[in-house]
């Protein structure tokens, strides 16, 4: 589907109004190349306003160098208008004409434009080339100057309830596993001894042993008493 078809007449009219306002700003009142007044054309990937004559020269450079649009006759996409809002002739030339000598003769203009954008003869060696990023956001039809250049915030990954519950219970599961006793390390051939019993566990175990010993003693005494015969004294007296 053609992206331009998605731009309604109302939105296109707003784009035209915004571009008209941008072209009247002090930094855009002159053609970015020949410096003639009131430019009505633009290079959408360089972010500059240019005159009719220079627009024809820009077309001859190829779309990989410059993509030309009319500010009043062509349909603009929101992202293209956003880039024009973020740029200006002055800002663009701060890169492309950074090494250009003062009062340099720009004639013939065809050679000047070719040297400027194709050969990058006067381009800055320290400033990064301003470029149009496809899908750039931040455009507002009501705003004629300035654009938000902040990137789209990355959406934080949302954990599901199952993942959250698993993550929360992992420390508990690990501690329970370690407390169950000794384990065999097959890699190091070391047998890990079980944890020592606590004082309360030792006392409880000692009480259980003492109780068992007492019960055993009582049973032994009872059995011994049942197997012993007591002779009455009267029998000794009458023994012959």
From TrEMBL:
Molecular function GO labels: GTPase activator activity; zinc ion binding
CDD domains on file: ArfGap
InterPro entries: ARF_GAP_AGD5/15, ARFGAP/RecO, ArfGAP_dom, ArfGAP_dom_sf
UniProt keywords, alphabetically: GTPase activation, Metal-binding, Zinc, Zinc-finger
Segment forming the signal sequence: none
Presence of keyword rRNA-binding: no
Domain Arf-GAP, first and last residues per copy: 16-130
Any Pfam family matching the protein: ArfGap
PROSITE patterns attached to this UniProt entry: ARFGAP (PS50115)
UniProt-listed SMART domains: ArfGap
PANTHER family xref list: ADP-RIBOSYLATION FACTOR GTPASE-ACTIVATING PROTEIN AGD15-RELATED (PTHR46419:SF3), ADP-RIBOSYLATION FACTOR GTPASE-ACTIVATING PROTEIN AGD5 (PTHR46419)
Protein's name according to its UniProt entry: Probable ADP-ribosylation factor GTPase-activating AGD15
């Amino acid at each position: 589907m053609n992206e331009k078809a998605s731009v309604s007449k109302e939105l296109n009219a707003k784009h035209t109004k915004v571009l008209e306002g941008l072209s009247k700003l002090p930094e855009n009142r002159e053609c970015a190349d020949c410096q003639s007044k009131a430019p009505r054309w633009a290079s959408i990937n360089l972010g500059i306003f240019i005159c009719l004559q220079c627009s024809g020269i820009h077309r001859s450079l190829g779309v990989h160098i410059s993509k030309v649009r009319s500010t009043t006759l062509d349909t603009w996409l929101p992202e293209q208008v956003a880039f024009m809002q973020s740029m200006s002739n002055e800002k663009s030339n701060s890169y492309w004409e950074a090494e250009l000598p003062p009062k340099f003769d720009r004639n013939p203009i065809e050679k000047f434009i070719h040297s400027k954008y194709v050969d990058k003869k006067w381009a800055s060696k320290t400033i990064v080339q301003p470029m149009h990023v496809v899908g750039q956001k931040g455009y507002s039809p009501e705003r004629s100057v300035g654009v938000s250049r902040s990137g789209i915030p990355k959406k934080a990954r949302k954990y599901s309830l199952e993942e959250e519950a698993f993550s929360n219970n992992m420390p508990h599961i690990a501690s329970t596993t370690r407390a169950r006793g000794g384990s065999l390390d097959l890699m190091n051939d070391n047998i890990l001894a079980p944890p020592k019993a606590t004082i309360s566990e030792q006392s409880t175990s000692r009480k259980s042993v003492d109780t068992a010993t007492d019960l055993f003693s009582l049973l032994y005494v009872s059995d011994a008493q049942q197997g012993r015969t007591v002779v009455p004294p009267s029998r000794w007296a009458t023994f012959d």
